[in-house]
Amino acid sequence: MPLSEFALIDRYFRKAGAMRSDVHVGVGDDAALLQSPSGSDLVAAMDTLVEGVHFPHGSPPASIGHRVLAVNLSDLAAMGAQPAWALLALTLPKIDEHWLEEFTAGLAALARAYDVALVGGDTTSGPLSVTVQILGHVAKSTALLRSRGRAGDRVFVSGTPGDAAAGLAIEQARLPASCDPDGYLRKRFLYPSPRLALGECLRGYATACIDVSDGLLGDAGKLAHASGCGVDIAFSDVPVSEELVNAVGERRARELALTGGDDYELCFTVPPAEVDRLRHNLPPERWGYCCIGTLRESPGAAVTDHGNVIEFSHSGYDHFAP
Ligand code: ADP
Ligand code: MG
């Protein structure tokens, strides 16, 4: 017998996240009742993943559950905030218990790892689409914004962007699976790691921060624009993983790092006078970030390689691009 909506919510979502003492009422009533800490700002974000747009048809359900929470956690990381609560809106073509089991396991594992409680949501029928709304906190007036960078600030990125774009290409057979023998690149697309610890520690150092979801060049450009600046990026300073270089070669790896998507790394700016303090207190070898460029006064985003400007046909993903 198919599950009723009520039984489905009860079975899969009532206990899917962490248990938190600041949740007075969670899944089961008309709305959740949550205790916000005093002295902090409430931080909210929401992201949707649509089948065929944000993940290929037939993606592993655990990956979809992981990613829909990870992309939201990444937005909180970019604000320097701590996540606390999530709501899940799920649109399903049919009730497939195996799919729900795996999806919830993927979401719950990440939720528990970051102490996020699932406190509510909505379940509807239709083409597969998953939305998470995340709520969290940051000490009053200390959130990182995109808009506080200044010309001269150094621009940094965490991790090795481009891996996920190659992983997606392999999932879609646009690249051969043989170039990813250990599945590293696919894993970087399917199970991204939100940089929450780094985001939190960057408060007090970074003037501006953005998470890299639509391509480093485009997202660094968005940060620069929000700060009333432009950005210069040095092509040879863009960090790339050994796995990506082995898969597509060094030049293509850097191009993918600049224009691919789905990285969920952090791009942030630090005034030159603060860079030594940053490096001393957050050693780059341990925290995994590096300098890729500088904010400038004139608008735009330019990539240079030994003095030559490199042109890209696109700087990142735009859902409504013609
Ligand atoms: P209502 O009709 O009042 O909106 P629902 O039947 O949609 O109530 O939901 C009942 C309870 O289950 C609510 O607490 C709601 O937040 C929760 N809920 C529904 N769908 C989900 C879901 N996909 N994940 C988590 N909680 C859910
Ligand atoms: Mg409802």
How would you characterize this protein structure?
The strands form three sheets. Strands 8-10-7-11-9-12-13 form a seven-stranded mixed sheet. The chain has a four-stranded mixed sheet with strand order 3-6-4-5, with helices on one face. A two-stranded antiparallel sheet has the order 1-2. Helix content is 33%, strand content 26%. It has eleven helices and 13 strands. The chain binds adenosine-5'-diphosphate and magnesium ion. Residues 9, 13, 27-30, 88, 90, 118, 120-123 line the site of adenosine-5'-diphosphate. Adenosine-5'-diphosphate is lined by residues 9, 13, 27-30, 88, 90, 118, 120-123.
Instruction: Tell me the helix content.
Output: 25-40%
* Shape field: globular
The number of helical runs is 11
Amino-to-carboxy terminus distance: 46 Å
Order of helices and strands: HEEEHEHEEEHHHEHEHHEHHEEE
Mean pLDDT: 95
Kindly list the characteristics that best describe this protein.
322 residues; binds magnesium ion; binds adenosine-5'-diphosphate
Summarize the structure.
With 322 residues, this protein is of the alpha+beta class.
